[in-house]
Every structure is written in structure tokens, then in C-alpha cells.
Backbone:
């Protein structure tokens, strides 16, 4: 389960720390408020292709960190083991950086 999302210098976001709680979390806002940017940031940290235009204007790089809660027996343990990563139950933290040149 996604527990938190930290976004720095991505699109129009300077810095945002979003903490999510168990159960239903709802994001609302007017058109252009940035709801879709949160989804783009989550997709980026999960492996979507990085692009130079994701980095906020004037910044050298953008960064997204996602914190997931892992319960015992979660299927991601198998995926991580296949790549040689040992993960304990508890937290999985993914961080990804995108530079202004798109790398």
C-alpha cells in the first residue's frame, strides 16, 4: 500500500510531501490544481519513461520518492528476490531522479 509520496521540482511542484492513511484517500481540486501531476509522479517513480519536460522550469533535476508498506507474503518480495534485492516486511522506498536533459 502506498503510504507517502514526496515530489521535488516536478512540473509545477516545487516541493510536496503527501502522506496517505489506510483506507480511502481522496484528492479533489479544481482543474489545473495538479491532481494529474501526482499520478504522473507516481507513474514516474514506478518506471514510466522520464522526460525533460517533467522537471520544473529552472530546476536542474526533479525527484520523486514513494514509500510503500509491505505486508508479509506480498508478491513484490518475489519480484525483488529475482533481482537480487532482499526486502524485509515493513517499508519499501523507491526514489527516482529525472534531470533537466531527460536522463
Residues:
Amino acid at each position: 500500500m502506498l503510504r507517502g509520496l514526496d515530489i521535488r521540482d516536478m512540473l509545477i511542484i516545487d516541493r510536496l510531501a503527501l502522506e496517505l492513511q489506510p483506507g480511502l484517500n481522496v484528492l479533489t481540486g479544481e482543474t489545473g490544481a495538479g491532481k494529474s501531476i501526482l499520478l504522473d509522479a507516481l507513474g514516474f517513480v514506478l518506471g514510466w519513461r522520464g522526460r525533460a519536460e517533467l522537471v520544473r522550469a529552472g530546476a536542474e533535476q526533479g525527484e520523486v520518492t514513494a514509500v510503500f508498506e509491505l505486508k508479509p507474503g506480498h508478491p513484490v518480495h518475489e519480484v525483488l528476490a529475482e533481482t537480487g534485492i532482499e526486502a524485509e516486511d515493513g517499508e519499501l522506498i523507491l526514489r527516482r531522479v529525472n534531470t533537466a536533459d531527460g536522463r
User: Anything to note?
Assistant: The chain has one domain: 2-99.
